[in-house]
Design brief:
Layout (H helix, E strand, L loop, with lengths): L4 E2 L1 H4 L14 E8 L3 E2 L7 H18 L9 E3 L5 E3 L18 E6 L4 E2 L5 H18 L1 E7 L10 H9 L33 E2 L1 H12 L9 E2 L1 H13 L10 H9 L4
Parallel strand pairs: 1-5, 2-6, 2-8, 3-7, 4-6
Antiparallel strand pairs: 4-5, 9-10
Length: about 260
Amino acid sequence: MAIDLVTRREWGARAPRGSYGRLSSTRGVKVHYTGGQVSPDIVNDHAKCVAMVRAIQNFHMDGNGWMDVGYSMLVCPHRKVFEGRGPNHLPAANGAGLNSDHYAVLGMIGNAGLTQPNDALLNGILDAVEYLRDKGGAGREIKGHRDGYSTDCPGGPLYAWVKKGAPRPGGGEGPKEPGEPSYPPFPGRVLKYPPLMSGEDVRTWQRQMRTRGWSLDADGLYGERSREVCRGFQKEKSLQVTGAVDRVTWDASWKAPVT
């Protein structure tokens, strides 16, 4: 099913107060819920969903003082995906210092009233994830807001679903990137130094370079030695020599024959 996208114009969004920060890619997506009371009536009346999205934007702009609604996309129980800040734009909902790593997708349930996501809402969240991967360079990660930030969001039921791997309802798999390879997919961020970058994706690439015969510690820190190895590998494979592991370099690390 193609995404059932509700554009900002269609839901009557206010204009943002300023320019968005730009994102070319992210590690993935973080799932949110509204918290508080959500009326179960929205399940049977989509007009109430539209009104709720407007109310969320008003709260974020007038209550929080943000330039716009904080989420990248918002999803209702009718499998409709509302355009928030959208792809390639920095969200505001993940928490200070955490917004550049993941897009933010809201599932419209709360901690009272409507608390259980239906299949349409779960499918809509996955539709939003696929859309952000296709249009905004989102990586593979699907996490909860509480991962890395002290909050109950996205609530027990949604978080349990996320921890299971965000499967499609009915036993299907979660979203895949188009043409997803059998080797580890690009993590959604360019590995470079400086600044010093760290994480499991760095360690994964370092291990592969060691497999290929390069002298490199798989310590998860992308420092000067990692940059040297990257430049040497890029030169060997006739790639643009930048010292940064972009998608092309990442793919070549596994595609090219290991000697």
